[in-house]
Every structure is written in C-alpha cells, then in structure tokens.
User: What shape does this take?
Amino acid sequence: MKNKIHQQDVSIRAPSRQMWRRSLLILAIVCLCFAAVGGKLAVIQIGEYAVWQERAMEQQMSNSIISPKRGLIYDTNMEVLAQTKEVATIIMAPSEIPDEATRTLIADELSVLLEINRDALYKKTGKKTSLYEVIKAKIDHALCDTFIDWVQEHQFTGIFRVIQDYKREYPLGSVLSCVLGFTGTDNYGLEGLEAKYDSQLAGKAGRVVTAKNGWGDAMPNDLRYESTIEAEAGNSLVLTIDETIQRITEKYLEIAVKETAATNRGAAIVMDVQTGAILAMATKGDYDLNNPRVITNPDTAAQIALLAGDEQNAAVLEALQKQWKNKPISEFYEPGSVFKVFTASTGVQEGLVTENTHFFCRGTYTMPGVKPMKCHVYPRSHGDQTFAEAIAHSCNPAFMTLGGMIGGHLFCQYHAAFGFTEPTGIDMLGEARVTPTLYHVEESIKPVDVATSAIGQTFKVTPIQMITGLACVANGGKLMKPYVVRQVLDENGTVIEDIQPTVRRTVISEDTAKRMAAMMEGVVEIGAKNAYVPGYHVAGKTGTSVKTDQAAGEGARKNVVASFGGFAPSYDPRLAVLVLIDEPQTTIRYGGQLSAPVAQKILSEALPYLGVEPRYTDEEIASMNRVAPDVTGGTVSAAENKLQSAQLQAKIVGSGGDVLRQVPEAGAAIPKNGTVVLYTEGGNESENVPVPNFVGMTLAEANSAAVSAGLNLSIAGLDDRDGQAVIRTQSVEAAAEAPPGTVVRVEVLYQDTVE
Assistant: This one.
C-alpha cells in the first residue's frame, strides 16, 4: 500500500500551457498593484509632500487662538466712540485632569466661581484627549484674579490657562448706535461701521501652537514643543461725525419722537454742505451699543412678552432688526413738500420761472380726466402770488403748474441729476437699493405723474438722498458723495488712508443756487417760522407727506411723515439739516409744527459751536432785547417767576427772602436770557466785577466773556454785510468796576471794513 501511495505521489503531471498563462496573469496583476502603490508613494513623497506634511502637522499640533486687538473708532475730534477693553479667556486641558475626584471638584467649585452651568462644565472635564476647552470667555481682570487665586489654592498644574482676550466697548452707550453698529462675541463686526470696515478694524489673529504625541496628548511642557504667532492689531477709523453735534441732534430728535409718539421712529442728518461730510446721523428709537440684543421700546417688549415659542422668537428677531436699522440710509419715504426745492431749482435753472413770475391759486388744480387736486389751504386759496411767495406758501397748484411747464423729459433728467434714481454711495452698509419702481421713468411718465411728483408725492427717496440734494442747492450746485469715514490709522496712529470729498457732478449754476437760497430763507421767515434762528438766516422747506400706500382702517387717518430740510446761513451755507418724524400720533402732524422746531434747536446750538458768527438784523436786535421788570420789594421766589416770564435769568446775592435792590434797574433794556442780579439781606453790594476789554472780540467771544463776568451786552451796528463782526466800542471802559448784571452797550463793525 505504501508503494502504491508513493507511486501516486510521484505520478504528478507537468503543468499545462493554460496553467502557465494563468500564473503569468496573476503575476502581472500583482506587479501592477505594487507599481501603483509605489507610484502613489512617490506622489505622496514628492508631488504632494507639502500637503501631507501639513496634515501630519495638524495631527501633531494643537492651536490656541490669540485674539487680535480691534482698532478704535474716533469722532472727527479724536474722541473715542468705540474701544477695545483687555479681558481674559479661561482655557482648560481635560487631558491633564488626573482623576474623577478632581473632575468633580472643578465642576462643583468653578461653576459657582465663574457662574456657569455645572453639568456642562463637568462634561467638558471628561474629554480626556482634549487640550483646548473654553471654560469662560471675556471675563474682567477682577474675576480673572479670583480664578487665579483659586487655581493656586488647589495647586492645579497644567490644567488651566488664561489667555489675553478683548471685549468691545462703547463709552457713549446709545449715542450713534445705528451708525456704529456692534460686534459679536468673536469681536467681528455684525452691524453698521463695525461690519462695513471689519477688514480694517479686526486685525489678524495669532496662535499658540502646542505639539501632541501619537495618542493626541500634549507633549511635555517644553519650549521646543510650543511656539507663538503674535496677533496683529486692527486699524482705527476717524469719522466725520462730531460727537457734540451728534449729541445735540439726538437730544432734540429723541424729545420729538417721544412727544409725538411716533410709531416708526425718527431720523435726522446734519451734513457739511461743502464736502458731503456727515457731522451727525441719528435714529430714534435706537439701542444701547453695549447691550444690542435688549429691546429698548418698552411697549414692544411688553407685547413680545405675551407671546411664546417660535412666535416669540420671530417677534424678538423682528424687533431687534428694526431697532438696528439705520433709518437715514435704509428706508424710503415720500418726501412731500420738501421736494418742491428741487422742482423750483429745475424751473429757475431752465429759465421757466423767476422770483417774480406770477401764479394764481384757486384752491385746486385741475387736469383733464383727473379728479381736482387740492391745495393744502382748501377750501381757501392763495390767489395771485409771485413764485417766491408760492414757495413760501408751499402752494400745491402753483407747483403743479410749474411741473406742467417743466414736462416729463426735463423732470426726469433733473430727478436723476439730483441723485434720486441711484444710491448716494455713502460708505456704510445697508443703503437702500434704488429701483425704477420707486420713481417715474421718462418712458412711462404721464402729465398727472409730473404734477404729483412736482409736490413730492407718488415716488420715494431715502433721507440721505434728500439731504445730499439739499446740500447741492446750498453749495452752489455740486452734488457731493456723502461719507462718514475721513481717515484710516494704523496701530501707531499713522494715517494710511485719507478720504477726500468727492464731487459727483454739477447740477445747477451758482446763480440758481443763490436765488434758491434767498427764496428758501423767505420760506422760513413766512411759512416755517419754527425753524427760524435769529442771526443765522436759515433757508428751508417743510413737508408733510401722506403714506398713500398704507391702508387705514375705517374712519382712521392715514399715517404721515412730517419733515423739514434746510441749510444755514443762507448767504454762506455751512450746514444742511434734515429731520423726519415718521408716523406721529399727535393731532397736529405738519412738518412745520413737529420737525422744524427740532431743526431750529439743532442749528441754534451747532452753528455757534462751530464758530459761525450770527448776523442780526435791527429787527432781530430789537426783538432780542427785554425790558427788565421791577422786582424789588417782593419775595425772591416771586421775582424769579417774573423774570422767567420775561425770558430773563436771576442771580441771587445774599441769604434774605426779599429783594432789596436789582441790577440793572427796572426799565433797562437787556438781551433775551440776560441776567438780573437780585440783592437780598446779607448781600454785599460792594462786590463789583471788572469789565472785560471787549474791543476786537467777535460777538461769540464777547458774549462768552460777558457771561463769565456776570454782565449783559447790548449790541448795535449789526447788518447783513459780508465779513466777521467784531466789537468796535464799549460803553463801560475795560477794567472798570461795575455791579454784576450791568448792561454794557457795544458797537460792532465788520473786519473787511477795517483798514
């Protein structure tokens, strides 16, 4: 049997040709596989070396981000509007926590110390392969010091790190909020200028790079295994905004919005007419820049509180987005009668009308196939009037007639030339997109469209478009590009970008502009007296536009936008101002009653602040003076009330309850808001004050010196001549002693008349 088996074992047949072919095929396939693997290795080692090296490094390295210091934002006078405060962020390396007891201790005690969720912290401590877990970001130094004391108390080593971080702060709170915008928790801009100029302000983040071993754990704490790439600070912005003028604007706009219960907020802009620089841009209601996600309107907040779930979340988001919107650039409105300035400018520029062209108002304006359109004084009428009077009266039929004289072609040309068919290009995010649906185009404009557009209805503009157009009329016909950033500075304060004014085009001639200024001054003197500022010759126009595209309930009035736009001084314009009160809920809703007083208050404070000298007419001087009433013999309280009624101020000398003597005496003429000194028992009448040397001073300087000395000025010699008025003579010699309250009469002359 053995032999048989052996024979079977050795009687194996030689391989066939087919088997050889199969073997060779298998061998070829194996060789191809090895070649492919080798080729791929070659590609990885040579062609893709850098890519795979980077991936390998990523697996071996842990990055800790170093936040960059965000650049500052200044007003035009280098007052800080937005700054970056140094804070700290606490980082934990759970891989370094030795045991469960330490995890529990950290979660229990640190959650209380830092006021964070205990369970969430405990979960983080369990990430055994992690080197970088943020425990709490952006804490102040006091809390950080407390945390460090806690770490040292427990002798924790290698578990925690404190890295420098930054937090954005806004020193002025809500001032300029809708312009500045705010940043997120990562310090990147989310709204306003913070978002628009984020690439300039943000800087470049740095890194702390730590090596890891094959298990993903940190290598020993050795400098060889850690390197730092320093963060680069961001650039800073210098704005055209003047903080003082911004505060003035916001103060009076906020009062008006509250008093009128305006349901769609209010807006105001102050612009340098010569450059297009924005000196103030305000929206009320706005929000606190340091708490931007708090709804500031109490009524809105109360309504939202009644909601729940998704409905509440949606309402919160809608409310926040509304209060964040920069109304002057982002919202459209029908301009109303303020637009008559541009209709008039077109007519004067094209030679269709002069100041003395006559128009007749019957109370209505009729066109074929159209319902008669009423004048705002209907059923009364203006009758016969010159064009200058028609502007002062804001007569709708006169301007509709002028619209017919201009025609669709010219109207559309000038409408575009004044910038109402395109964005202004202001350097801010959120400027509303202008489309042909907002205005009439030449291809389809009808005579009735021209008539209604001539009075500022049936089309829409933004406030920034409107004030840019007004500045064009004020500055001699140049349409400027508005802007809010005038310089970019590096971290050392070096100017790396200097923004210059940009003239977009010339729309009207200087002659037309001067004539329009004179007629608009007449508007303020006759039809918009609430915008009148003594000595500053305000040129302007009021407007009250009905929201025709807004439905009103049965018996309800449609909402309106009450506005005023103008500039001053008319003879040498410096500032343009536009004020809008959107949807006032008061009985009286006209722009002349609601918006003009806001503009008046802004200009009355902003112009003297900028050093613009007033030019008083004789009539103004006479109206400014007050006659000092006799308040002697009565009580101090009664005297104060009497002086207040006469628009005079009281200064009390002594501690008695009755007025024994007054300076100036009863019957003396003193300026409005002048001071009457009231002497009571115990008052020292011998404490005279030295009279300043007013000669050579400007009026502003003289008034300031007089107030500081406790004296009153009476001014003579003012007129409408060009040049700066300076004091020529004074009735009481310089350095002489005079009782407080004494009236010093001064006479002025103009510098250009001095040889």
Q: What stands out?
A: The first strand starts at residue 61 and ends at 66.
